[in-house]
Amino acid sequence: MLKHLFLALLVLGAAVTARAADIVVGSLQDLSGPIAALGTHFRNGTQMRFDEENARGGVHGRALKLIVEDTAYDPKKAVLAAQKLIQRDHVFAVIHNLGSPVVMGTMPMFLDAGVLHLFPAAPLKEVYEPLHPLKFAMSPSYMLSVPPAARHLILANGHKRVGILYQDDDMGQEVLRGIDGLLGELKLDWCEKTSYKRGATDFSSQIARLKAANCDFVVLGTVVRETIGAWKEARRIGWQVPMLVTASGYTAQIHQLGGREMDGLYAVVLVPHPYAEGANSRLAAWIADYKKRYAIEPNTWSVFAYAGADLFIKALHRAGPRASAADVSKALEQTRSSRDFFGNPEFVLTPNEHLALRRVRVAQLRNGRWENLTDYLPPAR
Asked: Rounded distance, CA 114 to CA 359, Å?
């Protein structure tokens, strides 16, 4: 009897030790709300890279454990989920938290708890400035990413009357401020500015205002569903105005959900969409593996998530066994990745730069496929 009890305690102790050895990482995703089309891929891409590393023995023998909480793109739910990750799950880091309102509502909680806040899917300046040892970003703010793309199209096509449709929250305000600065630089005035509440589905009044103002170019501070709705409303009333959407709209879901009618839309590109046609051998194998795992095609956000997870894993290896958050932070500050099989740009982090990417491309939907129109453009001034 005592022998059996002793063996049971040994097994329990080994299990507790194994769990304690895990590197627990959290992620706040929209899996059931208006941008679930993005959240699913952020989860999948991250999990795929973690699974690969665990299959190789983990990081210094420690397994990576990903805990994903569904926020449904609701900041109130996100706060409760963040509390769980911090207090119950004791996460070492959070990665790729999705959505500007979600991130702005929860980032202070993670930082106050000493949790690494890595590569959020919320292109806001606040996620990398002011400099903080625990916060790192991969994508530039909308104020940095949208103006170079808009400048290129305005100058290349001679647009003079620029309008904007933007989501009335932190994300939309970032886009608005970025284009406002660009128009000042180009000595152009706004044609029209109009907004919508998060979750809106009817854009008839906003599009009518932009058309009545005779805008010849429209910037969309929108996400997937809203991009499709705005574009289709303009086409429904016979208005063929060119439109540029932020990187949030650069996704295969645009043409998958919107159909060929979406052809012509411009988008800001951070990392490339992974198309199987014409892919190199490594990318083709990666796409096939992703489809086998998740029974869906990968997209740009799958690539973004996978790349961010890879940067984190490399930093964990450099930081050494049982590394602290401070150790991993210092390792991240030594990051300089080269161009990879995805065609990703070089990612660079330093002690004075916690934003890994400052340059973007412009793409356009043609025949149901995103095609790059430019290489990486000079960063915003």
From this structure: 30
